[in-house]
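hey can u run this one w/ nickel (II) ion bound, need the structure tokens asap thx
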Amino acid sequence: MALQSFVEVKPDSHFPIQNLPYGVFKLGPGLPARPGVAIGEYVLDLSEISKAGLFDGPILKNSDCFLQPNLNKFLAMGRPAWKEARATLQKLLSATEATLRDNENIRQKSLVPMGKVEMLLPMEIGDYTDFFSSMHHAKNCGTIFRGPQNPIPANWFHLPIAYHGRASSVLISGTDIVRPRGQGSPSGNSPPSFGPSQKLDFELEMAAVIGPGNELGKPIDVNEAADHIFGVVLMNDWSARDIQAWEYVPLGPFLGKSFGTTISPWIVTFDALQPFACDAPKQDPPPLPYLAEKISKNYDISLEVQIKPAGREDSCVVTRSNFKNLYWTLTQQLAHHTINGCNLRPGDLLGTGTISGPEPYSLGCLLELTWNGQKPLQLNGLTRKFLEDGDEVIFTGCCKGNSYNVGFGTCSGKIVPSPH
Amino acid sequence: MALQSFVEVKPDSHFPIQNLPYGVFKLGPGLPARPGVAIGEYVLDLSEISKAGLFDGPILKNSDCFLQPNLNKFLAMGRPAWKEARATLQKLLSATEATLRDNENIRQKSLVPMGKVEMLLPMEIGDYTDFFSSMHHAKNCGTIFRGPQNPIPANWFHLPIAYHGRASSVLISGTDIVRPRGQGSPSGNSPPSFGPSQKLDFELEMAAVIGPGNELGKPIDVNEAADHIFGVVLMNDWSARDIQAWEYVPLGPFLGKSFGTTISPWIVTFDALQPFACDAPKQDPPPLPYLAEKISKNYDISLEVQIKPAGREDSCVVTRSNFKNLYWTLTQQLAHHTINGCNLRPGDLLGTGTISGPEPYSLGCLLELTWNGQKPLQLNGLTRKFLEDGDEVIFTGCCKGNSYNVGFGTCSGKIVPSPH
Ligand SMILES: [Ca+2]
Ligand SMILES: [Ca+2]
Ligand SMILES: [Mg+2]
Ligand SMILES: [Mg+2]
Ligand code: NI
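ok here u go:
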């Protein structure tokens, strides 16, 4: 039988004792930010566990990493510390262990109902990078933006293409997204259009959170890259397609993306994901040696996008996809990112790119789902080409095991009107 | 007669009392980082001036902004604090003021010879953005990368094009640059090339350092943008042209740039630059209203690039350009950056893009100077298509007035071989 916690965990919960994802929360306005892990419908306050002396392993015993307002210090400590914390917490939370279960004082202080906390960005993000690792997404976008001849650029099968995104506007799930204003392509001899984006979109992505970084000038070997990945979050790379289409040649996306990027509050650790590893797709042409992995893994993570249209109570599922649709692995992305000597730092965020699959229902953004607005979506009697003010977009992600799930919770945001 | 300091300042110095650029220094390994201003051949230690109670204006009197290891807190305070600091420091350093001049104790503690300090990055950089604001550079690069038909993209005259660069690898002048490795374009049916870059280049740029930022969703008006700019530095956006050419379609430059970006240690304040303001170029077509400035200013800053080839004692001037060659102004860049609601933060770095002028001697990178290696440069009997290991690149910048200069010092870096 699978490990059980003394904390009640419903069978369909995303947060059983096998998961224990990390986040940062506060109990109210003006109160301090504290690291925690999710267990059932509770948050375990790691600052209280630390203050009670319950992290008693050799690495964490004298560390103040859980007394920080973010996870960066813990991220920098690397896998030995992460494994020790996981072992300690699984033991403390297990049904058969008395230490926390039977200590009402510490239990009361450390286990907080999720409804009572406000989740915050779990780490300071030095740099945020966004990859482009789904072949289906690359092909669809190429066809829409540049036409059906050679929609996938020649370099795409040789390297995981990426660009630097905006770190300042990475937001925690639940933050409203202000509709961006900007320029769109001119028609004929008119000047460019200007105003609130008319093609506001989501992008279904996940992102790796970096643990220990690397020194400038010292690339990370692809076979050691996993040791630099702490865990994974859901990510919505909100995109204004009209702004993007006009600005992106030749230096790439800028204002079409930089107005907001939402991540889920709980970082599911790489360790918790391992039972859900699966083979990565065969890569043809074979990657260059620096991208050739001894073991190449994807993860079987079911992903779903719902839209709750403005003024409605019910949301509609618009996409069902899976992390395993990605062509380039997280470890290949990381190795490529550093091959030129670029330094990563703890807390850096590496987005996968939009995770589209081959099926029409598995497309990861409205640009693809509506074919740039040409085929509007039906949502319970409403239609949508792109997002309207008041629409809320909700991502969920979950690894479904036989006796438990390892889930990501949700990543959501609502569109609010442009200022004028 | 111009204001004089009691500290000796040679006539050709970059750092007279009219300049007073800000930096951060330490006195040796393990010693604390402290803010300072440059005066002649000395650094004035602002932590000592602060501890001595000599910042006696209403804003700075009780502030600990100069007791920080970087300038971010001072940057966030905005122009009223900057003006008060400048007035206080010009008074304290003037030849006719006894307070510091005649107090040997404080003078000894606070005035440190430049030769005794190590300069550090002056601020924590949350995000680094690079623009593309010289028309000559855009035209030359477009011609080299995409051919002579329409070398300047259609959007270029309507918006200041930019992309996000890598903040983690922004380096202080004097740091060695490790030659990056990476993929280059395949020839024929071969796989892509891989190895140390064969087309390593510099890019002559300057960059604005942001003071107070803006809230997410609240754009900065172009006519108020100057209040968000603290000052300007020299910047070398090192570029690997072979890596860049293969990777940059469709998401822009990534590994071709992210291995290192060097800035000069002294931030020349916007206030010190004002005597050197000049008209910005006439813009045709006229910019959209959000980019139309009541007063549109450039700055007359002479720029020079020298290469000191590996193993040689002498350096050769390879470029003479000027900041006023830019088409888009710093304030237009900033207004464009935020028009979609993107939030800037104190310490953000906004590069101008390579500052090339119309003359053959004013081209800001080797890509243009050697026309992608087709016309090698002559350097005192040596030739260079691109940079070789051991080559040092040195930028200088200076505003030349009638009775004094306002200079930027130098921004330099030496190429060291790739790891293997
Ligand atoms: Ca994306
Ligand atoms: Ca550049
Ligand atoms: Mg985004
Ligand atoms: Mg650079
Ligand atoms: Ni060796």
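The two ends of chain B are 59 Å apart (CA to CA). anyway lmk if its weird
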